[in-house]
Design goal:
Radius of gyration: 21 Å
Oligomer: single chain
Strand order of the largest sheet: 1-2-3-6-7-8-9-10-11-12-13-15-16-17-18-19
Structural class: mainly beta
Largest sheet: 16 strands, antiparallel, barrel
Number of strands: 19
């Protein structure tokens, strides 16, 4: 009953925001879509996973502020059972406000709330600055922050610095700095640094430093080269042990103490004369991935992504490897946008 109350309250608050914003301004756009996704491995006779969901909310846009609220809803048939009864499941997916200040050649902004960062191009690889290396697969590269972020835009440069957490507790959190450059119209580069600096302010903690860079070069429409590389290193602290973590005196490290990883992926998008909106091939390598995942897996992985839109409906079909290069899986997501 408590969970049902929380879900209902989330929906009421979300709808209240949308209705109030619509009454206050014409700059609010209602946003909604219905999605279905299925994934299957060739080794199995049935889907490994399958779901339906809906996303609905609104976005407000003005010269001095942008804001968005999106709620995600799953049906009662997908494991949403409380007290032996099935309920719709509601999640607060996005909720943020971005306050903007235009100083001519300089643009400043302050963003706060909960939003996603996604450096991935086709959906399977990348976003190493945020995502855990073990989280790899079909459209799993988005990462949600609870954060405060300050931004500065000047010419081709867009610099953002944030204090953020992923567990809604700012006693554990990190500092993240990101720079994106539009050097020329077909060439984009980005770099970021992240460290869990806030952890050590309260408890014993091992620092994990992440440095990542991404680049994309478009030769002509739908002919593009892109990729991402990162260096992730975790230090050592004798005071951080299984015993001190269990006792609440220390925070468990993100990765094994003393470990180093150099993940990267490269991709190419090819034109198809209108057959697909996008056709992309990607290859990834993560060193010592078998040690990272504690099982027999390959350091390399691949994916082929095909995207096609039909009116308001977008389909994305991926063929990709799972644990080994010959472990082939297929996944399809269909998104219908309601305007």
């Amino acid at each position: 009953m408590k969970q049902l109350f929380k879900n209902t309250a989330a929906v009421v608050l979300g709808l209240g925001f949308i209705v109030s914003a619509m009454a206050a301004s014409d700059d609010v756009q209602l946003k909604a879509n219905i999605q279905t996704q299925g994934k299957a491995s060739y080794e199995n006779d049935a889907f490994d996973s399958f779901w339906f969901r809906a996303n609905f909310g609104g976005k407000y846009t003005s010269e001095d502020m942008d804001a968005q609220v999106m709620i995600r809803m799953y049906g009662p048939k997908f494991g949403n059972t409380i007290d032996e009864k099935s309920y719709d499941k509601f999640l607060a997916d996005l909720y943020w406000a971005d306050y903007k200040l235009d100083l001519g050649t300089n643009k400043l902004d302050l963003k706060l709330g909960h939003w996603k960062t996604d450096w991935s191009q086709a959906g399977n690889f990348g976003t190493y600055i945020d995502r855990e290396l073990t989280a790899r697969g079909f459209l799993m590269r988005d990462y949600s922050h609870d954060a405060f972020e300050a931004g500065w835009k000047y010419g081709p440069s867009a610099l953002h610095a944030m204090i953020a957490t992923s567990d809604s507790k700012f006693k554990t959190g990190y500092v993240r700095v990101e720079e994106r450059l539009q050097l020329a119209k077909p060439f984009e580069v980005g770099a970021a640094y992240r460290v869990n600096a806030i952890d050590a302010m309260y408890l014993s903690a091992v620092q994990t430093h992440r440095i990542a860079g991404t680049a994309s070069f478009t030769l002509i429409k739908n002919l593009r080269l892109y990729g991402e590389v990162a260096y992730i290193t975790t230090g050592k602290d004798d005071e951080v042990t299984d015993e001190t973590v269990d006792a609440g005196f220390a925070i468990a490290p993100e990765y094994e103490q003393g470990s180093d990883y150099l993940p990267f992926f490269v991709g190419v998008e090819l034109p198809t004369a209108g057959l697909f909106d996008n056709l992309m091939f990607e290859m990834e390598r993560i060193n010592d991935r078998d040690e990272l995942m504690n099982k027999d897996v390959s350091d390399f992985a691949w994916t082929v992504s095909m995207i096609k839109s039909f009116g308001n409906t977008k389909t994305q079909l991926n063929l990709f490897s799972e644990d080994e290069l010959n472990d082939v899986a297929v996944a399809l997501r269909i998104t219908t946008t309601i305007k």
